[in-house]
Structure prediction request, 334 residues.
Amino acid sequence: MILIKPDFYDKFKCTASRCSDTCCVGWEIDVDKPSQEAYRKVAGAFGDRLRENIVDGHFKLLPHDRCPFLDKDNLCEIYQQLGEGSLCDICREHPRFVEVYGDIMERGLGLCCEEATRLLLEGEGALQLVSEEIDEPEDELGEDDEEIRNEVLYEREQIFKFLADDSAPLSEKLYNAFGCSSEYPFAPLENAEAYLELLEKTVSFGPAWDEALARIQLRIKAPLKPNGRAAPVTDQGFFSENESRRLLAYLTYRHYAKCLFEGFEQGKRLFPVFFWNVVRFFTRELAGTLDANPADEAQSKQVKIDAIKILSRQLEYAEENMVLLERALEGAEE
Prediction:
């Protein structure tokens, strides 16, 4: 089998207590059956705590949706007491993801993780994918399915190629890769209001998103200027061209090939542009730092990471939200 991964994948290492966020708060934590069996055999008071805090295959969350095994320093007690090998699957693998297409396995890191997002944005040049042979069982594909897969991966490779073209300005990259003309900055949608309408239809993951959405609503529906016109919604200027093309390419890498199983080929093709437009037009609102200055390098770096990770969590980690968006974008004009 061939394993494909992005150029920054092997550099990733959880920053643990140094992370400004934690993936052990605000998520439903599934405990897989092998881990449940292992936890039943743990002796002593800690073993009793493990068993008492598993309900219907999940850890019983504390107030503010904290994992019951997250200590005051935001470190995992299971890791400290029993070692990394005792973590349940989701805790050991997150934020990693994997997709298998026949004899091709693709791995990546979710952008809800600030360290993964940092590595993506700080990469030099266009996003590169690396491949290697691994000894893993393949998924069976018939000849017809394999041919379709190859066509989809070829089409995705063309998107990567257009985004990596150093001779073309970003506007030309966007047109060649996604069919979005620079004459229409909100393409593939008509305007900022259309973006807000879609975001308002998504299912909220919690208060942090509700607050971010309220800030976006206020920005779009701000009081009129003295001339009677609303202030225009424009690019807030935080993302460089290289950061933009790496983000667009990475979202394409994660989502486009899933049309093999899920459909919505056009919707999956345009989702990266939708995501990118939301984070560039509403960087401050998403990050909750309304006075952020793009010229302040240190502040700008954190604001971009915060904007991407909250939007990734809201959209990419809720299947119903992805279906809603991809269905809406499926009919968008190229």
Observations:
- The mean pLDDT is 91.
- The first strand starts at residue 2 and ends at 6.
- Strands lie at 2-6, 54-55, 58-59, 96-101, 104-109, 129-133.
